[in-house]
Every structure is written in structure tokens, then in C-alpha cells.
Amino acid sequence: xMNASSRWAKLRQTEAANGLLMISPTALYAILMLAAxxxxxxxxxxxxxxxxxIIRDFTLANYIEAWTNExxxxxxxxxxxxxxxxxxVTVLLAFPIAYFVSFYVAPSxxxxxxxxxxxxxxxSYLIRVFLWKVILGYNGVVNSGLLGLGLIDEPLTxxxxxxxxxxxxxxxxxxxxxxxxxxVALEKIDRSLLEAGQDLGESKFMTFRRVTLPLAMPGxxxxxxxxxxPTIGDYVTPQLVGGPEGRMVANxxxxxxxKLDNYPLGSAIAVSAMGIVTLVSLIFIGLNRRYLKGxx
Amino acid sequence: xxxxPTMIAFQDVHKYYGDYHALRGITATIKAGEFFSLLGPSGxxxxxxxxxxxxxxxxxxxxxxxxxxxxxxxxxxxxxTNMVFQSYAIFPHLTVxxxxxxxxxxxxxxxDALAARVGExxxxxxxxxxxxxxxxxxxxxxxxxVALARALILKPKVLLLDEPLSxxxxxxxxxxxxELIRLQRQxxxxxxxxxxxxxxxxxxxxxxxxxxxxxIAQLADxxxxxxxxxxxxxxxxxxxxxxxxASILSETGGKLEVEAQGFGKVTLExxxxxxxxxxxxxxxxxxxxxxxxxxxxQTATDRESMATIEEVVYYGDMTYYDVRLDGxxxxxxxxxxxxxxxxxxxxxxxxxxxxxxxxLVLFR
Lengths: 296, 364
Hints:
A: MetI-like fold; 2 strands; B: alpha+beta; Rossmann fold; CATH 2.40.50.140; 2 domains; six-stranded mixed sheet; five-stranded antiparallel sheet; 8 helices; 21% helix
């Protein structure tokens, strides 16, 4: 008894025990609120759907349905396509902004610029999405503006309740997330490397291609993942501005769960989507692995 | 020896950063094949001057000529110069070989020819077989060599070195100094070194420009700079110099009659007074090793004075004595090489000191 309690006291003094103690509230939260529900969903995806209940029979039917049904497949492909376009647009637009702040803004003003870039976060995501509805709508800001200027005769309809509006809204929402990692990567580049590039005979543009861009790639890769992974599963934006043809996989899962009460199929779609996101991300990282090795 | 052609000419170069006058009328020429150093304390404008050659820094007025061509408007990537940066600026995402071959992309070499050139360059700096290594895994000295190989592979007319040895430890630094001299002789390219280390400049250079506050204070070969500094500032910056007040009695036929405290009346040659008047009053200066403490049985070859020892600093191979010559107010420093069997003198001891008028420099 004595022995056991002293051993316990010794254990409490170790580094590892202290570390565990520090992370335990969040670890507990993560286990209860993330890991347990995730486990439940994976479990559900292999069970059979019954009327108003879930029958505990192991089956792969949900996965077969999720992967073979034309509707589900097209929504998944659309989600992937939307997320890829959003990622491409966001990162391409974010890079020049990060480059500008890192290379052209005076060091004393950089924090102010970063602060300004994060201002959109002051408004709730939901409200920002809703505002795009006001801007892009039939009687929205864009249409009434263009009508007022006499540039169009009737309101444009291709800008809301379709894939376009989903892309615009998501690209706007995720821009700050994409700017920051690229900015950090650019900040880490020793400026004498750029002088060295020119000293060795390369123009400014070629120095950018041969020195700046490769060294900024870890930031670009981080940006791509930060934008791609959440956008593919975004629920609010396609729900509010996507219309019927802008539906994405999260809306489909919600439909299965809450409207059709088909937990197993919804779970199978969710697990499949997670698998696809993981696979695409790993392939992307694999293709760019040469930029990620070594310190820097 | 025939006069070497001019490689670099500064013609009244001025540089302003806003109100700050960083370069104040630099006029100097650097000869082809010369090992030239820009020496001065931090903030004296030596790095700025180097960067005007490289093309990283524009100039406010005047002209920088390289090999007879005015460099105004010529960007850094089109100048016949290459630089070894203070931080070495090794590209961390490339291998050693890719770093060294970076500047050869535009030469349009075949893969084999490129590899051969890179191999040669690495061989030259003593890094044979390092081509495939990751650049970030190198030590400081190795980075230095990669930076040298990367610059020299392009066969520039001028190699610019911005404090290249300051990040290395003492032993490594001394080794690299010798290697740089050897390399410069081997390739015959004009080397321009920026340094704040006077010893480094003395060891390596054919000629040195000492800079203070944006101006060249003296431009001379190391020996002249050390033996005949033209101002107290230069004398103080390079090595140690003792000063004793003096007055000029007469100046006739290129000879100066001077009455110096502790030394009495001495006659100096005109070349012993290289500087202009500074307004601080005249003084004679002399290096610590030009005076000798006489031990029993030794006699002076030239002149002799009596002195009292006030401080003794023992360095192993050397002993530094602070002594006061009779008739002077402040002590001067004498450095003596320690010889086996000879005692180190004690504080307060009386001693004879040998000196020679030829070692004195007159500051007006």
C-alpha cells in the first residue's frame, strides 16, 4: 500500500505525467466530442437501416449504395470540384497579398496589415454567407447596380443559387486562412537569398521562380490543405447560396440524417467523404514532398 | 613590375539615405588582380560601397566604373561581379551541387558539362564529392566554401566578399584567410573584401582602404598603413599606437626637427609625417614593438631612455609592459617577446628602454 502510493507520487513528478495533466481537459473533450462520435458514425455506416430504428446487422450495403448511386456520386464529384476550384482561386489570390505584405509593407506596418486581413472574422461566418446572398441576389447589389448603370436589361441569374455563388462565397470566407501560412513562409526567406539569385545572373522574375517560389511552397501547401479540407465539407454556404444545383456532400449527409432518417447511409457517405479528402490530401502532399523536406 | 590596369574606379561617389550621408565623395581605383580590402568600424559605409559595385545599392551622385564601363543603370544580374554574402546566402532548398551550378543555367550547358564544371569548382574549394549533399546540412566553413565556389564558377571579373569570415570561429577563420589568399592567386580575379577586422585586412590584402564615416581616411598597402598611418584615427584603428606630445621646432629641406616628450630632440624624415594637421596639436606615435626593454648586459643600437614599469600583462609568448619614460606624464605600452631564461620584470622596476627615431611617426 505504502509502496504503491509512493510510486504514484513519483509518477506524478515525471515530465510525461505533467504533460498529460496539462492536455487532459482538451484530450477528454477530444475523446468525448470528436473521437466517440466519429467512432459511432463509422459503426453506423456498417449497420442496417430499419424503419425508425437501426438494425444491428453488419452490412456493406450502405457503402455500395453510396458509391454506386448516380446522385450521390455526382454530389461527391461536385463537392470535390467546388473545393478544388475554391482552393485554386483562393490560393492564387492570396499569394500576391501575402507577397505584398511580406515584401513591400514596411516591417513596422506588417502587424497592422495582418490585423486588417483578419477583420472579416469579426463578423460571424453565417452573416458573411448571408451577405453574399444580398449582394448576388435577383434584386441584390450587383444586379441593381448593373441595371441602374444600364449595362444589363434584366437581372443576372447565374450568380446566385448555383456552383458559382458557392465558389465566390467560400473563396471569400477562406482568404485569410490562405494568406497567413503563405505570409509566414515568405517572411522566413532570407532576403540575401534573393540578392544572391540576382547576383548569380538571374532576373527578378527568374529569381522569384527559382528561389522565392520553392521556398514559399511549404506555406502554399499548408494553405491548400487549410482551404481544401474544410471547404469540401462545408454545409452552410451551399445550403444558403447554392440552390438545388449547388448542393454539396454535407447537405446530402444532412438530408440522409435529418430528413430521410437514414443514419447508416448518411454515415457511409460521411466516412466515404472523409476517406476521399484524406486520399486527395495525401496525394497532394506526396506530389510536393520535395518542398517539405529539410529544416526551414 | 608593370602597372596593372584599373578594374574598378569610384569617381566622387556619394550616397544618401534620406538625410543620412552614407558615402561622402569616395574616389579610388582598384587594380585588376588585386586583393583589396575595405576596412572600417561598423557603420562606416564599407558594405554600402561594396554593394554599389554589386548593383544592390544605387548611388546618389558620382560614378562606379567596372573595367572601364560606367555601371549606372546596369542591374545586379548583368554586372561582371559575384558576391560572397555575409550570411553566405546558400539556397536551402537545393543541394550543394545545385547551389554551385545555380548561375550556370543561362550558359546552356549539357548535363555532363554542367556536372563537370560544378565538380571542378567544388574541387577548387576543397569540397570534392559534396555535390549531392543537402545544403542545409553543412557546417559554417563548408557553407563558406560553397558560396565561394558558386561565385567563382561564373568567372567574374571581380569577386566581392562581404565580411565572409566573421561568422567563423578563430581557428577556422585563420585557415580560411590563408585559403582565400591561395585561391585569389590561383584564379587571378580581383577580390574586394569588406571587414572590420584589421588583422584580417593586414594578413590578406595587397592594399587596404580604411574608412570612417563614409570617407576613405587612408588607402595604402598594409605595411605603409601600419608603419605610417596618416592620422591618429587610422593609427588607433589598426593595431596599438602610443602617442607622446611633441612640438615641431623647424622644417627644412624635407627634414623635421622635433622636440618630443620622453625622447628629446629628434630629426625625422618627411615620410615620417604623412598626415595633415588635425588641430589636436602635434604628437609622435610609435608601435609597442618598436621599443625594447634592455636587460642587463644589453646595449641600445640607437638611442636609449630611462623608464619606470607601471603595469605588466603576461600573455605567454608575449609580455606587455606599461612603462613611463622619464619626463613624460602618461605611460606607454611596450610589447616584448618572452625569451627562455629572461625574467619578467616587476611593477615599479627601473629599466632602460631602447628606441630609434626612424620608428616614430609625427602627427601634426
